[in-house]
């Protein structure tokens, strides 16, 4: 009786704390010039009648933006709606992580504990906003779950390949490689392997028409190919970055080390634990981990690794559960401490977020303008002042027949409020400009009339993904007009 009461209390407490964490993440994560802002801008463009690829240099395949568009249409065109979309994505991801743990025969209590530990590890990317990589990995987790569940339905797997690829093309490519190797591992070089592969490819091609035909009918197919694929070489060569902690390097390598040990010992000392079915599970997991880890290139940093980290941690926890923890947690007497530990972990997250709020409150203010996309959210005081000044300046110049293009990566702050689009100019990152993008933009800059370009006065503050070449080209070839905020104004009149 007491155990049932504590079990119900634990469930109610977990639901309450998860709801509280969701609210805190939605409202107290600060607004920055980051993926959240740029993804919000491109999704809002669709709600304002613009077309992605034609009016927005979206460099990924479109499912993330299509689903975001539906979310904003249903809930309202505000940052609040986009952050709810973010929570839906990560709830989906963590739900699939939990389902995979159960499929690997974890107890519900251990499965919830491991899921919470993964949640803590990826919390920083959850608070950084809705992201196509997170959605693509979530779809990939569904495919992994199907393999672990021994569900080899060809249509279902083809559908997952379609969803992953058309959410993020590079993740889709590596996921497809994982599928080929998994099928080869399960079926060897048999007739069944080749037939399944051909059927999956055929169904994938048919499903792809659901995306490609509408793009063709709206005359955006050429732009889609240009931005999603034309700039890939430039993106891969000019954005190389390595900034990752020793801890995450160890976590990334550990599954491969553990798999090697398990492979070497499975027929000797571990035969009772590492059965053929268990070894198959390990092999399927390591295949997906191996290929999907390559999505880190070229930006090998903590944020990008966190998207794929759940796969590594699932493998590590699976090995720990089988080899160390299974007997230790077998007795029921450990259930109650585990439940309370789960609650303690979630409370720790709440405290962390609340302290973060009080820390940033000193330099941030809530947006009080009810017509603003950012209404009710915290933003840096200096950023809010800059947005208002730039809005007033741009509206004034537009009334005089002068277009104003902000070439800095923070332009989205203002463009979102103005509901305008300058297409490729809205995010001048290397690899975001399509094929031969920099040279094409140089020609366009010289040909534009009645246009002012805002360039960041201090070149040292440019993002590492921005092109100093374009900034310097504007400075060298156009006329200096004056200053506004942290920008220098140039024009060709």
Explain what you see.
There is one protein chain. The protein is of the alpha/beta class. It folds into 2 domains: 61-329, no CATH class; 380-491. Helices cover 66% and strands 7% of the residues. It has helices spanning 2-28, 35-47, 63-75, 79-103, 108-121, 123-126, 132-148, 154-165, 169-187, 191-217, 221-230, 232-238, 246-265, 276-292, 302-328, 335-360, 381-399, 411-418, 437-447, 468-477, and strands spanning 241-243, 299-301, 364-366, 378-380, 403-406, 451-456, 479-484, 487-491. The strands form 3 sheets. The chain has a 4-stranded mixed beta sheet with strand order 5-6-8-7, sandwiched between helices. It has a two-stranded parallel sheet with strand order 1-2. Strands 3-4 form a two-stranded antiparallel ribbon. Helix 1 runs parallel beside helix 16 (335-360), helix 9 (169-187) packs antiparallel against helix 14 and helix 19 (437-447) runs parallel beside helix 20 (468-477). The model has no long low-confidence stretch (mean pLDDT 90).
Quick tags:
alpha/beta, globular, 20 helices
What is the radius of gyration? 25 Å
Number of domains: 2
Mean pLDDT: 90
Silhouette: globular
**Terminus-to-terminus distance:** 83 Å
Which structural class is indicated by helix and strand composition? alpha/beta
- Percent of residues in helices comes to 55-70%
In what order do the strands lie side by side in the largest sheet? 5-6-8-7
What fraction of residues sit in β-strands? Answer: 5-15%
Helix and strand pattern: HHHHHHHHHHHHEHHEHHEEHEHHEHEE
Alpha plus pi helix count: 20
Work out the number of β strands. Answer: 8
* Biggest sheet architecture: 4 strands, mixed
Unreliable stretches (pLDDT < 50, length at least 5) are none
